[in-house]
Amino acid sequence: MAARPILRLGDPVLRQRSVEVTELDTPELHALIADMFATMEAADGAGLAAIQIGVPLRIMIFGFEVNARYPDVEPIPVTVLINPEFEVLDAAKIGGWEGCLSVPGMRGFVRRFSHIRYKGVDQFGNEIAREACEFHARVFQHEFDHLEGVLYPDLIDDPLQFGFHEELVASGIL
Ligand code: NI
């Protein structure tokens, strides 16, 4: 298990649509997921999609007890989600600040659905189905977008609400 380099915004690999995983519970899949966790933990991330380490499969991991990058948010169960789907339970969107390990040092204000239901399977084929609100719902939608080749800067409405984390904090915007 080893942390791998994270692709950054501008790398066209991040823009491809990831494909469904067809074989679960294989040594290769378990090794990939172990590397994804090592990569996410090394970077203090809240989530990671396989495409961020260059593997175009529909796999996301997310969750944490406490997160140094997002100290004020509720814990999210540590989750492996393969071939995920979701439905929107409340069409209202709420805005929130996001970062991404593929856009290091930056934050942007993005509107997301506040209440969703998602489902998928874990690496063993166990079904996972949950309702999620607020930051949990936000993290899922952010990772799901990676599987579609979408990164959060694409979704920013107001360019003034996008910038380097340090500068946004220094100027009181964040
Ligand atoms: Ni991201």
Notes on the structure:
By secondary structure, this protein is an alpha+beta fold. It has one domain: Peptide deformylase (Peptide Deformylase, Alpha-Beta Complex). 21% of the residues lie in helices and 33% in strands. Strands 1, 2, 3, 4, 5 and 6 form a six-stranded antiparallel sheet that branches. The model has no long low-confidence stretch (mean pLDDT 96). Bound molecules: nickel (II) ion.
Keywords:
Peptide Deformylase; 174 residues; alpha+beta; 33% strand; 6 strands; binds nickel (II) ion; 6-stranded antiparallel β-sheet
List the helices and strands and how they pair.
Layout: H1 27-42, E1 47-49, E2 59-64, E3 76-98, E4 106-121, E5 127-133, H2 134-147, E6 162-164, H3 165-170
Antiparallel strand pairs: 1-2, 2-3, 3-4, 4-5, 4-6
Nickel (II) ion binds at residues 100-102, 142, 146.
